[in-house]
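Model it.
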Amino acid sequence: MKFKEITAEELNINPFTKIGSEWMLITAGNRDKFNTMTASWGGVGVFWGKNVATCYIRPQRYTKEFVDSNDSFTISFYKPEYHSALQLCGSVSGRDRDKIAESGLTPYFTDGVPAFEEASLILVCRKLYRAPMKPEDFIAKENDEKFYPNKDYHDLYISEITKILIAEE
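Modeled.
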């Protein structure tokens, strides 16, 4: 797949559909070793005068190790025909199996950061901020009970979007 770089002003998506319904992959590492995970929580916007993406990663996720140990990672989006590949990437740990090979996705590197050729949209993100979610900071206490029965709170990442790539068809 060939990609074309665009500016944030040229990006025309519905983030609620892209993130909440179509899901996304968060991918981090380098050419030697990387991992990916499916996510359906996140956002895009402007913060500290920069175009940013937010994502949330639980502590037990293998991909978190790669996000934490690298300056940049990608968030990528796919057409519906890749739903089963994203489902696999969200349910199998890369610690235990080669889920990338099993998914059928083809690694693609941009500025040394991993993504996949099958993506329709890739956001290259440079980490700016990370903070753990803490139960004492929940205002809507029902979310603690509903989403964290195991008390495995996400870390929040705010990252500058340094590059936007769209698939050329």
